[in-house]
């Protein structure tokens, strides 16, 4: 076995499969494109699902790549075990309906054992297989010469994630030798495939040969697939003969850099070693994620990023690192991984900037959390308690981002404990809420053998024509090919050519009709790309049937296409405008382009200011007003890149690409339809800007006649406001509104003054109504039509006058009731707390509440119960003293 560096393992893998005629594809972006079921690309196959389930047929059915992945479902194990990571690289090769078990197994064996490649000792290799898959066992024995006692049957060797392709798999294990054996020979887990450290899984070969149907049955897959995965980190640990993945060249430079920031050395202690590993792991993950466009936030993948960053900072504190430090590690990541992932070097400065700001924010959070925790500790002292409840600790963590470790640390300094079990219960409840809200992350579509079999020469003529004659090649109804689509029914038509644009790249499909002469035979409802690229026209037939092999006239709705063109070209200008105003990080992350409106999703830290939105809108309209020609040309992709054309993450481009160039300002690779000149857009108007996820913003806008109609609506509204306010000129409106606001403010001030006088008068009466129970004085009173602020103001007066030991105030407003309970310190010492007293009282108004020992408040929906509530105060005080 050759002691290879990680970069050498990557390259050898790709070179090997390139020799086997595989297309080598680059790693997909970590943020899934057009896949809402996933937060991250979490496996090699995740970015290729459309090929695996037959939705799309690749140009080359044999594919290989090294895919960066993120998984955070078992984050607590990172740094604790030898091989758990949040970010990892998966080396994979795939066959999409091409080769199957024999080639996959023999090639894997060749790559591992051949002297030209990895040169493993074959005696140290073991494999597992699904017991019913005897074919796989025979291939390992007969084609590879693997001894039978190196082949183990394991029931779990069946890859199945729900509906869609599934099948048996075969895992390859490497015997690391006796020095790594952590179990006795007779332990039931001491075998290849068991939970032990000696036999390490290095490669998994999955043979997808069944469709898992919605009814739970397994049907033979129309096109069998191969999907393999080899973790680079663990392969590096094997080839570099180190105990864990963290001692490989992928992590050790980071760990050494961390060591320069602390007096603690890696290898001193298991606990501090864990902190080194967690920091090294997390900084890799967040650097890659930010480089791919993710940004820290309070939800979705942004929340995961923020959590990883904060965990790294907390583990830094355990190593004695109190200053800002994580951004300093980014250049180390770029140095290790930059040759394979150029985005790390290209965006190094941006990644450092984001991390520095996030770490600064967390340090501020820690300070704020310490204030909140000190209040909790003070409250416990007053109550004579010695344990911070799990719910309180979770509240500090969830609301203020204050880590449990810090809560425990500060509590111990004060001689207090933390209910860890209660915290975990609250945390698990949150996880369960997240799980229930999440889609099935791995499912695929069911392969359609009917659609997959349809493959013929097809022409899209819709760039230049909106009408053409075309012949029907295939008709599909209910996933079955038929010769005729009956009248008044729906089906899918495949033509030899079409002017209809199929939904792609955010642009909606054209609508229109199928004609025979002047007679419309069917309405075209939708158009989608088929598995082999031909357009599938979903239609609804009218009075006449439609026949295969017959020619018809296809006509696109001209007005709808024109408005779609306006909106599509406007999105290109909007993209450029956002980069001009916000910066190069404002990258497109999704769009909707239809005849009615446009929607544009992009990466950005936070809400855009009104001034920024105005600048963006002005830029687009400037380009519109200057009547710039929209030049569209096809050219080699290298030429397009040389002229600065922007390519979108997730889009697949061939060797020849279509470039949309607007005045050399906006240059993008795009297959959509556009106006010929920007003046055709008419006008551009932003309707809304909002946040839609972690570091993601959305702009919605109108163009052309839709924008003009909106301007007209706003003008009508403005005139109506002028009429209502009796203002003759629109430029006088602002002055009139300011005048009305001043009048309202003066009136409100007068009302507040009168309310205060009324409350003062009421307090004189209320505070005279003192009653006693068990040598304890109390006042119980109702004040009509007041809010909680008024009750609290009355409570302040009560405290100043020390009118009684307990004050109970109730009020009603419309159909709601409010309740305030105050207790002085002397009474708290006797065992009466405001929070305990308010709970039974609130039941009378069908409400609930709580608070501190000296003050509590509640709300309810039964004002009619107030009098009964007041009458029961004495009894409830007695109950608390009993």
TrEMBL record:
EC identifiers of the protein: 6.1.1.7
Key words of the record: Aminoacyl-tRNA synthetase, ATP-binding, Coiled coil, Cytoplasm, Ligase, Metal-binding, Nucleotide-binding, Protein biosynthesis, RNA-binding, tRNA-binding, Zinc
Pfam entry (one): DHHA1
Domain remark text: Consists of three domains; the N-terminal catalytic domain, the editing domain and the C-terminal C-Ala domain. The editing domain removes incorrectly charged amino acids, while the C-Ala domain, along with tRNA(Ala), serves as a bridge to cooperatively bring together the editing and aminoacylation centers thus stimulating deacylation of misacylated tRNAs.
Family: Belongs to the class-II aminoacyl-tRNA synthetase family.
Cofactor note: Binds 1 zinc ion per subunit.
Coiled-coil annotated residue ranges, if any: 730-757
GO cellular component, one term: cytosol
Necessary cofactors: Zn(2+)
Subcellular compartments: Cytoplasm
Residue numbers binding Zn(2+): 568, 572, 670, 674
Stored SUPFAM superfamilies: Class II aaRS and biotin synthetases, Putative anticodon-binding domain of alanyl-tRNA synthetase (AlaRS), ThrRS/AlaRS common domain, Translation proteins
Function noted in UniProt: Catalyzes the attachment of alanine to tRNA(Ala) in a two-step reaction: alanine is first activated by ATP to form Ala-AMP and then transferred to the acceptor end of tRNA(Ala). Also edits incorrectly charged Ser-tRNA(Ala) and Gly-tRNA(Ala) via its editing domain.
SMART domains reported in the protein's UniProt record: tRNA_SAD
Alanyl-transfer RNA synthetases family profile domain ranges (all copies): 4-713
Originating species: Facklamia miroungae
Protein name: Alanine--tRNA ligase
GO molecular function: alanine-tRNA ligase activity; aminoacyl-tRNA deacylase activity; ATP binding; catalytic activity, acting on a protein; transferase activity; tRNA binding; zinc ion binding
Enzyme class label: ligase
Main location: cytoplasm
Reaction it catalyzes: tRNA(Ala) + L-alanine + ATP = L-alanyl-tRNA(Ala) + AMP + diphosphate
GO biological process, alphabetically ordered: alanyl-tRNA aminoacylation
């Amino acid at each position: 076995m050759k002691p290879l560096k990680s970069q050498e393992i990557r390259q050898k893998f790709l070179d090997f499969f390139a020799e086997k005629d595989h297309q080598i594809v680059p790693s997909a972006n970590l943020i899934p494109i057009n896949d809402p079921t996933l937060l991250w690309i979490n496996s090699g196959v995740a970015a290729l699902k459309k090929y695996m389930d037959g939705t799309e047929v690749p140009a080359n059915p044999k594919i290989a790549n090294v895919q960066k992945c993120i998984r955070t479902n078992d984050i607590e194990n990172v740094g604790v075990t030898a091989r758990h990571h949040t970010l990892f690289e998966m080396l994979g090769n795939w066959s999409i309906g091409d080769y199957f078990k024999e080639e996959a197994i023999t090639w894997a064996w060749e790559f591992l054992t051949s002297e030209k490649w990895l040169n493993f000792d074959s005696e140290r290799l073991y494999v597992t297989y699904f017991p019913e898959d005897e074919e796989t066992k025979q291939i390992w024995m007969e084609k590879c010469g693997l001894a039978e006692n190196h082949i183990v049957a394991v029931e779990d060797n069946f890859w199945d994630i729900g509906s869609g392709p599934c099948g048996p798999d075969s895992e390859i294990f490497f015997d690391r030798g006796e020095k790594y054996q952590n179990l006795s020979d007779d332990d039931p887990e001491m075998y290849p495939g068991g939970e032990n450290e000696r036999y390490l899984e290095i490669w998994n070969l999955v043979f997808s040969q069944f469709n898992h149907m919605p009814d739970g049955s397994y049907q033979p897959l129309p096109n069998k697939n191969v999907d393999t995965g080899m973790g680079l980190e663990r392969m590096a640990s094997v080839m570099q003969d180190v105990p864990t993945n963290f001692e490989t060249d992928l992590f050790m430079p980071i760990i050494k850099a961390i060591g320069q920031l602390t007096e603690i050395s890696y290898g001193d202690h298991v606990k501090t070693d864990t902190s080194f590993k967690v920091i090294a792991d997390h900084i890799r993950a967040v650097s890659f994620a930010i480089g791919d466009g993710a940004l820290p936030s309070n939800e979705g993948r942004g929340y995961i990023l923020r959590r990883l960053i904060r965990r790294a900072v907390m583990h830094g504190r355990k190593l004695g690192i109190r200053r800002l430090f994580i951004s300093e590690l980014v250049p180390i990541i770029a140095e290790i991984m930059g040759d394979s992932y150029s985005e790390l070097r290209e965006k190094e400065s941006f990644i450092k900037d984001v991390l520095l700001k996030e770490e600064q924010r967390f340090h501020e959070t820690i300070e704020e959390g310490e204030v909140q925790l000190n209040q909790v500790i003070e409250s416990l002292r007053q109550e004579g308690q010695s344990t911070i409840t799990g719910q309180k600790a979770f509240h500090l963590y969830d609301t203020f981002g204050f880590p449990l470790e810090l809560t425990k640390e500060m509590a111990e300094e004060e001689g207090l404990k933390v209910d860890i079990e209660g915290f975990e219960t609250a945390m698990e409840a949150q996880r369960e809420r997240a799980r229930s809200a999440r889609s099935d992350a791995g499912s695929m579509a069911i392969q359609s053998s009917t659609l997959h079999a349809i493959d013929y020469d097809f022409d899209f003529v819709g760039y230049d024509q909106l009408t053409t004659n075309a012949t029907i090649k295939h008709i599909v109804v209910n996933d079955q090919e038929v010769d005729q689509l009956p009248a008044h029914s729906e089906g899918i038509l495949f033509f030899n050519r079409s002017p209809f644009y199929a939904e792609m790249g955010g642009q909606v499909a054209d609508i229109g009709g199928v004609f025979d002469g002047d007679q419309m035979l069917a309405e075209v409802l939708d158009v989608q790309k088929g598995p082999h690229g031909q357009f599938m026209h979903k239609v609804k037939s009218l009075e006449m049937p439609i026949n295969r092999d017959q020619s018809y006239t296809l006509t696109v709705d001209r007005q709808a296409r024109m408005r779609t063109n306006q909106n599509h070209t406007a999105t290109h200008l909007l993209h450029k405008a956002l980069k001009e105003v916000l910066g190069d990080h404002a990258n497109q992350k999704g769009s909707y382009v239809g005849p009615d409106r446009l929607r544009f999703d992009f990466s950005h830290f936070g809400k855009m200011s009104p001034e920024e939105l105005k600048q963006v809108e002005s830029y687009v309209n400037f380009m519109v007003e200057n009547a710039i020609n929209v030049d569209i040309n096809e050219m080699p992709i290298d030429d397009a890149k040389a002229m600065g054309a922007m390519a979108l993450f997730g889009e697949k481009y061939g060797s020849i690409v279509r470039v949309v160039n607007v005045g050399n300002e906006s240059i993008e690779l795009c297959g959509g339809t556009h106006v010929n000149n920007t003046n055709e857009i008419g006008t551009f108007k932003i309707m809304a800007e909002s946040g839609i996820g972690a570091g993601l913003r959305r702009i919605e806008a109108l163009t052309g006649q839709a924008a003009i109609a909106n301007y007209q609506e706003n003008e009508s509204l403005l005139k109506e406001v002028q009429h209502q306010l009796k203002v003759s000129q629109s430029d006088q409106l602002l002055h009139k509104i300011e005048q009305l606001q001043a009048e309202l403010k003066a009136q409100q001030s007068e009302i507040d003054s009168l309310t205060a006088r009324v409350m003062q008068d009421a307090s004189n009466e209320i505070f005279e109504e003192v009653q006693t129970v068990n040598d304890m004085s109390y006042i119980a009173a109702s004040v009509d039509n007041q809010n909680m602020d008024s009750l609290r103001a009355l409570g302040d007066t009560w405290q100043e006058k020390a009118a009684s030991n307990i004050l109970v105030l109730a009020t009603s407003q419309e159909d709601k009731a409010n309740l305030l309970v105050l207790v002085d310190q002397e009474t708290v010492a006797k065992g009466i707390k405001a929070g305990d007293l308010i709970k039974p009282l609130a039941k009378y108004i069908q409400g609930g509440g709580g608070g501190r020992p000296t003050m509590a408040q509640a709300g309810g929906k039964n004002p009619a119960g107030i009098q009964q509530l007041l009458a029961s105060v004495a009894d409830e005080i007695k109950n608390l003293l009993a």
